[in-house]
Design brief:
This is Peptidase M15A C-terminal domain-containing protein. By secondary structure, this protein is α+β, with helices and mostly antiparallel strands. The chain has 3 helices and 8 strands; from the N terminus they run αββαββββββα.
Length: about 140
């Protein structure tokens, strides 16, 4: 896929799963968000064929799980939200058309970001999906 040469911060050698099946628009958005935050992103997964909720956007290459290095998780959440609201992409503010999940209980707390065409926010504490606000509060309490 030719998209990789157009990215400043990511390569196809990261943990994308099948890198060739990643949505180029998602990759460009992640690259813009990485630029805006000024901090490295560590990719956990991208395209996968199993292990996620049924209908997961990971199965289409439209999602990535990652964490942001160099700051606490609550700071990373704030930083990513700011970046989503400040980054124009495909003619609109990024926050308007992406799904963002926060996962404060992962071994390394992190994010799920997908391109879905509308805004969605959620969190997960333990094995339970919860509101974004509840997961954010949980993250701030240091679990």
């Amino acid at each position: 896929m030719m998209i990789w040469k157009n990215l400043k911060y990511f390569t196809e050698n990261e943990k994308w799963g099948d890198a060739g099946r990643m949505n180029p628009a998602l990759l460009l958005l992640l690259d813009k968000l990485r630029e805006k935050t000024g901090k490295p992103f560590t990719i956990h997964c991208g395209y996968e064929e199993g292990g996620h909720a049924s209908g997961s956007r990971h199965y289409r290459g439209d999602a990535a799980d990652f964490h942001i290095d160099g700051m606490s998780f609550p700071e990373a959440v704030d930083c990513l939200l700011r970046a989503l609201h400040e980054t124009e992409f495909l003619g609109q503010v990024s926050a308007a058309y992406v799904g963002l999940g926060i996962y404060p209980d992962w071994n390394t707390p992190g994010f799920h970001l997908d391109i879905r065409g509308y805004s969605a926010r959620w969190g997960r504490i333990g094995g339970e999906y919860v509101s974004f606000e509840k997961a954010y509060k949980h993250a701030g309490e240091g679990k």
